[in-house]
Write a structure and sequence with these properties.
The chain is globular, with a radius of gyration of 13 Å. It has 97 residues and is α+β, with helices and mostly antiparallel strands. It has a five-stranded mixed beta sheet. The termini are far apart.
Length: 97
C-alpha cells in the first residue's frame, strides 16, 4: 500500500478545536492536549498505512466513515495519495446528514 498524506479541511480543524476547548473545560489543559495528540497520531498511522478504511457514507458514497475509540466518528475522502479528513463528529452529533 502506498502511504497517504494526511490533510484536514478547515471544518475538521474547527471540530478538533471545539472538542479541545470542551475537554479543557472538563478535564484540564494537559488532558485535552494529550487527547488531541493521540487522535492526530492515530490518524497519521492510518494515513501512513495507505489502506482505504471505513464504510461508505449512507448518502455520499465517496466519503468513508470510521470511528476513533468510540469517541468520534470521522468522515474522510481518499484521493490519489491523500487521506482528507472532512469532519469529525463527537457524541451527540448527527454525522449521517
Amino acid at each position: 500500500m502506498t502511504p497517504n498524506k494526511l490533510v484536514f479541511t478547515a471544518r475538521a480543524n474547527t471540530d478538533i478545536k471545539r472538542r479541545a476547548r470542551y475537554l479543557m473545560s472538563e478535564r484540564g489543559q494537559a488532558f485535552a492536549t494529550a487527547w488531541v495528540d493521540a487522535l492526530f497520531n492515530w490518524l497519521e498511522k492510518i494515513a501512513e498505512g495507505g489502506a482505504l478504511i471505513g464504510t461508505a457514507h449512507p448518502v455520499q458514497s465517496q466519503i468513508r466513515t470510521f470511528g476513533y475509540k468510540r469517541q468520534a466518528t470521522i468522515l474522510a475522502e481518499f484521493a490519489q495519495g491523500e487521506m482528507r479528513i472532512i469532519r469529525i463528529y463527537f457524541p451527540g452529533q448527527d454525522w449521517s446528514r
